[in-house]
């Protein structure tokens, strides 16, 4: 791993549509970005489910741009999910570490270390071993709705695909993900990958720290993908919702208090002066 202006190191967690698209985008031009892809599954990725037909407009444009080829060279509307995953995997296979589950993410001095558990398959038994990978300047969480990266709200961690959707589209109960999940994942991988390439291209000699590289990202991109920004937006939504509930509860309690005072005072009249309740009786009013 090189520092300064020479090279950055990225760990991509998850080798599905979003993670593999990001890897292919980074792999096309830049020699100053090194990346490693981690996935808990083993090859071949037969876990891709959800039916055979795969018609995602984003893949068609990506395949044309990067000259991706499927093994059977079928029309786009006849491609299967396995065809697409294999075409994305072909050029980045050497960067993939499979059978590795991320147990914990450690941050030290703005660098990230992955504590992993690797599954070792042998003819007689299956065992596992622990290993630490790193350091990495950036982590990309492309590991689905149960993302490990989403639990770490650091500036150098980004979320794409389903890992991001859980926060960004929480209100539609997954309906958009069912309809366009793979399409959105591919779009995320392309957009974030191009932002990294652009940032590396425009990085100046004065930009020695990787926080400077992060600051060169457009604000909208950071707000969309940065785990810290996503967490801040999420907490803002939660606090706003709580404030609304508290305001409603206060208004209801105020109304209940008024009803309670009326029931206690009976016929006694009430003056409202600057929200202060002042009781008085009719005899005092006649004397005045």
How do the helices and strands line up, and which of them pair or pack?
Elements: E1 8-13, H1 17-27, E2 33-38, H2 57-66, H3 81-90, E3 96-97, E4 100-108, E5 111-121, E6 126-136, E7 138-141, E8 157-159, H4 162-168, H5 175-202, H6 210-215, H7 219-225, H8 227-265, E9 269-273, E10 276-280, H9 282-287
Parallel strand pairs: 1-2, 1-7, 2-3, 7-8
Antiparallel strand pairs: 4-5, 5-6, 9-10
Helix pairs in contact: 1-3, 1-5, 2-5, 7-8
What does this structure look like?
The protein has 288 residues and is an alpha/beta fold. It has nine helices and ten strands. It has helices at 17-27, 57-66, 81-90, 162-168, 175-202, 210-215, 219-225, 227-265, 282-287; strands spanning 8-13, 33-38, 96-97, 100-108, 111-121, 126-136, 138-141, 157-159, 269-273, 276-280. The strands form three sheets. It has a five-stranded parallel beta sheet. Strands 4-5-6 form a three-stranded antiparallel beta sheet, with no helix packed on it. A two-stranded antiparallel sheet has the order 9-10. α1 (17-27) links the parallel β1 and β2 (33-38). α1 packs parallel to α3 and α2 runs parallel beside α5 (175-202). The model is unreliable at 1-5 and 270-274 (pLDDT under 50).
- Report how far the terminal alpha carbons are from each other: 90 Å
Low-confidence stretches: 1-5, 270-274
Order of helices and strands: EHEHHEEEEEEHHHHHEEH
| Sequence of strands across the biggest β-sheet | 3-2-1-7-8
- Using DSSP, what is the number of strands? 10
- Estimate the mean pLDDT confidence: 76
Helical segment count: 9
Helical content (DSSP H or I, runs of 4+): 40-55%
* Global shape: elongated
Class by helix and strand content?
Answer: alpha/beta
Largest sheet: 5 strands, parallel
- Relative strand content: 15-25%
């Amino acid at each position: 791993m090189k520092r300064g202006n020479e090279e950055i190191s990225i760990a991509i967690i998850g080798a599905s549509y979003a993670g593999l698209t990001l890897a292919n985008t980074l792999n096309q031009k830049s020699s100053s970005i090194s990346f490693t892809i981690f996935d808990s599954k083993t090859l071949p990725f037969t876990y891709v489910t959800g039916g055979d037909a795969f018609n995602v407009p984003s893949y068609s444009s990506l395949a044309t741009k990067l000259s991706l080829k499927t093994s059977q060279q079928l029309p786009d509307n006849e491609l299967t999910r396995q065809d697409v995953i294999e075409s994305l995997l072909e050029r980045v296979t050497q960067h993939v570490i499979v059978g590795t589950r991320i147990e914990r993410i450690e941050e030290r001095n703005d660098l990230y270390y992955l504590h992993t558990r690797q599954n070792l398959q042998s003819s007689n038994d299956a065992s596992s071993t622990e290993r630490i990978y790193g350091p990495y300047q950036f982590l990309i969480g492309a590991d689905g709705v149960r993302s490990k990266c989403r639990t770490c709200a650091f500036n150098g961690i980004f979320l794409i695909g389903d890992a991001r959707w859980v926060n960004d589209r929480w209100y539609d109960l997954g309906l958009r993900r069912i309809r366009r999940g793979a399409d959105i994942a591919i779009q995320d991988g392309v957009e974030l990958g191009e932002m990294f390439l652009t940032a590396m291209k425009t990085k100046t000699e004065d930009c020695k720290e990787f926080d400077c590289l992060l600051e060169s990202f457009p604000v909208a991109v950071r707000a969309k993908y940065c785990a810290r920004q996503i967490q801040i937006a999420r907490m803002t939504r939660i606090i706003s919702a709580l404030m609304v509930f508290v305001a409603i509860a206060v208004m209801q309690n105020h109304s209940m208090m008024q009803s309670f005072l009326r029931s206690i005072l009976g016929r006694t009249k009430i003056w409202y002066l600057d929200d202060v309740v002042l009781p008085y009786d009719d005899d005092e009013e006649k004397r005045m």
